[in-house]
TrEMBL record:
It comes from the Bacteria. One of its GO terms (biological process) is carbohydrate metabolic process. Residues 47-260 form the NodB homology domain. GO terms for molecular function: hydrolase activity, acting on carbon-nitrogen (but not peptide) bonds. It comes from Acidithiobacillus ferrivorans. Signal peptide: none annotated. The chain crosses the membrane at residues 6-26. This is NodB homology domain-containing protein. It holds the Pfam family Polysacc_deac_1. Keywords: Membrane, Transmembrane, Transmembrane helix. CDD domains: CE4_NodB_like_6s_7s.
Amino acid sequence: MLETITLYILASIIFSQVVLAMLVLCPRCKLISPNLVRLPQTAVARREIALTFDDGPHEEITTQILDQLDLHNAKATFFCIGEKVAAHPNLVAEILRRGHSVENHSYRHNMLFAFSGPTALANDIVKAQKAIEDATHGTAPRFFRAPFGFRSPFLGGVLRRLGLHHVAWTRRGYDTTSRNPDTVLRRLSRNLAAGDILLLHDNKLGLVVLPRLLELCSHKELRSVSLSMIFKDVKALPQIYKHTVTGACGDHTSSTNAPS
């Protein structure tokens, strides 16, 4: 009997740890903490989408991305890494000057970020927050995106105390792992609709894909706006988080198609 009880306890522990790991590694899940994966209905009605760029600023690429956005009168959100912000503060100031949002993507972008305790999480996020505020002369980010989208069970509480809101994405192009711009564009454009949050990276492949993606958005009469433009009233965010639909853990394609 004792052996059976012990086995049940061990099985329960293992099962709970597996479930927890799956939730941590599920970028679009809301079960751990509030997580924005689509824009609110007000943005959908205005035919708006949100282009987001992770991992910048990049000393060669960022300015070219900004130029492409200017050509199409599009606004975007840049989730910047604190270390890179500290190295290139003028680029970050330029992003803001051109009318885009600069948001927090952690200070070091460490693979182990999601497995950190609350103190380590807060220290990293606050350090990135300060780097961005310094570079932008006082404009504090309101949004955070976890490195790789992996979220610690402690992250929600930390963000709440810091007054930040987590943003994931509706669909992504996997432009850090793919070498084919056509494949990246196909992943981003399949069933593309108003209200989508798109994830690209501040890298060469993201830059190659961007002009075609912007042309497609124009053809579909979709307008890219920054998160700061959409969420002027930060007090409305808790309700928006509550009512936006999450979909599955993977990137959204449609109710019938699996993600690429």
